[in-house]
Every structure is written in structure tokens, then in C-alpha cells.
Amino acid sequence: MTQLEDLNNPSPTAIAENNSDAPNPERQKYSMNWEVDQAGCGWLSLGNYFGYSTVLIKIKTANKKPTSLFKLQVAFHKNLVGLVEAFYDGKATYLVYNYHGFAVNLSQVGSTPAVQLSETDLASICRSVLRGLEYIHEQLQIVHGRVDCANIILCSDGAIKLANIGDSMIDDGPTSMDLDREKVGLLLLRLGDPQRSLNKPENQARAQQTGFMYWGLLPQETER
Q1: What are the Protein kinase domain coordinates in residue numbering (predicted)?
Q2: How far apart are CA 68 and CA 120, in angstroms?
Q3: Residues 77, 175, 121, CA angle at the centre, nearest 5°?
Q4: What is the pLDDT of residues 194-206, one digit of tens each?
Q5: Is the pLDDT of residue 28 over 80?
């Protein structure tokens, strides 16, 4: 079994493969305790070694080994749910993410009647999402492909973070960065007016224009 990296000092190649006779690596390194939802179900897990943080492990099962495991890489940014490391044990891929307690996804925010997002709120969400996408596009050199309310979380400190970047790395999804930016426009329209039908061509066109407009307003060098 490949030597596993410390959570506080992860390497860009934190993928450990086990043979079928060896115990699962996540059960050696982590204790999977409670099933929780953080932009999708996962296991709240504690490190089995002194000093390890609480993490969230999401499990992706497959009938055969994914051919895209080589694309997995450590990813950290203030507007991204960090991917700490990953394991593959012959039956499933285990994606280890930073855990953000009391976070809710934007679908929950948008469906709460008492919550009314102001233009300032929407602009702040948009800026955070676009900065996360800029890191994903320019530093990770991939496309997120799932920019929607269900894959973005609002943390207890007010931070906005794109979730499930591991899925984006290993799934054969959309490859257009422009589509990510267009989805930001759809996101804003959905949050600003939850009753609006986004299937109408005029609303789709407006969403596309909105996403590209906000992208163009980002400074050339954003804070990492």
C-alpha cells in the first residue's frame, strides 16, 4: 500500500491504491462515524492519529476502476471545499474533503421562505463562485461542470464554497469553461427569483449574458 500523506501536509498525488487482501485505507487512517449531508451525503470522519482534523468522506462506487483516477489532485481555495486526498481500494473511490459544520447548500437557502437575498447578497455569492471557478480553471486546469445551488454551500462564517470538486476531476462531464460561467448566470436568476422559469429561451439568454458579464468584472489577479 502506498504511504499516506499527513492531512496538514498533503501532496498533489494523494491517491493510494490497495490490493484486494489489504484493509481499506480510509479505515486505517480515518474512523467513519456519522452520515451527514454537505452538498451530498458523506461520512463525518475522524483521523485515527493524533492531530488529524475532522473530514468528510464521500464514496463513489464503480464496477470497474475509473480510468480518470490520475486526474485527482489536492485542491485548496477559500471558495472551494478542499479536497484533502483520495483512496481507491478496488471497489470504490473515497474522496476526503474538508468538513464545514453547520453549512447549508444554496438550494436550502433559496427554498427558505424567510430568506430574501438582496442584490448585495447575490453579488457577493457571484464573486465568490467566480473566484472559485477561476482557481479551478486556471490552477487545476479542469471544468467544474456542476455549478448549481445543490453544489455550492454557505458556511457558518458566511463563506461561499463550490463543492464536490473530486467528482469534477474523475467524471466524464462537461468540458466547457464557458458553460461554467453561463451556469453562474442561471444560479443568480434562480436565487434572485426562485419562481422564474429558466426553461424559456429569453431567460437562458439573460443567464448567459449575466454570467459572462460578472466574469468580465473580475480583477485580473484575484486573491488566492
Answers
A1: 1-224
A2: 39
A3: 45
A4: 665 444 544 444 4
A5: no
Q: How far apart are CA 35 and CA 56, in angstroms?
A: 9
Rounded-to-integer distance, Cα 85 and Cα 95, Å = 7
Which residues, in sequence order, are bridge partners of residue 46? 31, 54
Residue 129 parent element (H or E): helix 119-135
Residue 217 class from Cβ within 10 Å (0-12 exposed, 13-18 middle, 19+ buried)?
exposed
Instruction: Please give the Cα distance from 142 to 144 (Å, whole number).
Output: 7
Domains and CATH numbers, the chain: 25-98 (3.30.200.20), 104-192 (1.10.510.10)
SS in 3 state form for 163-224? CCHHHHHHCCCCCCHHHHHHHHHHHHHHHHCCCCCCCCHHHHHHHHHHHHHHHHHCCCCCCC
Rg (CA), the chain: 18
Report strand pairing: 15-17 vs 80-88. parallel
Number of Cβ within 10 Å of residue 224's Cβ equals 11
Per-residue pLDDT tens for 93-118?
A: 999 999 999 999 998 887 777 778 88
Segment 147-197, tens digit of pLDDT: 999 999 999 999 999 999 999 998 876 678 888 888 888 888 888 776 654
